[in-house]
Design goal:
Length: 157
């Protein structure tokens, strides 16, 4: 699968940034280790290889790793995602990590990856989104859950 992501640069809506988005392949694993380490600071080469190999063995509809490449073919960002079944209804897109690297404007790369992973969700018939974030402090984690759209409160009085 290959997706062309064209986004307007934030400071100049006429200029377009062009990234090629494609799935991680076996040949990409070692070359994108540096990008992966930007998103997972304690990641070892062995852990990355194991995780990437596991993702590559998944069926296409189960998620994976998408890479954003510049015009020279260099990987400039990645998104790790899963397509997860839900208790009720259609599957959910779960985004674990988005990593983008650029000297001037990594946001454009992150936007291209986000657009591409949302297109994957549409192709996979997802009707919801979940984000993976580290548990930080019980009080702030609880507040986040209670203030999100996943909490449904009912009161009789």
């Amino acid at each position: 699968m290959q997706i062309k992501a064209r986004l307007a640069a934030p400071d100049d809506p006429v200029t377009m940034a062009d990234f090629r988005i494609d799935r991680l392949t076996q040949g990409d694993i070692d070359s994108v280790l540096v990008l992966a380490r930007l998103g997972y600071e304690c990641l070892t080469q062995e852990q990355w290889r194991e995780m990437a190999s596991r993702v590559l063995s998944n069926a296409p509809g189960q998620g994976g790793v998408l890479l954003a490449r510049d015009a020279s073919g260099r990987a400039r960002g990645l998104v790790v995602f899963s397509i997860c079944p839900k208790t009720s209804g259609r599957p959910s897109l779960q985004v674990e990590r988005v990593v983008a690297f650029d000297l001037m404007d990594p946001n454009r790369i992150a936007q291209a990856l986000t657009q591409a992973v949302l297109e994957q969700a549409e192709v996979s018939d997802c009707d919801s989104l979940s984000l993976v974030r580290p548990l930080s402090a019980p009080a702030s984690d609880a507040a986040m859950i209670l203030s999100s759209g996943v909490t449904v409160l009912h009161q009789v009085l």
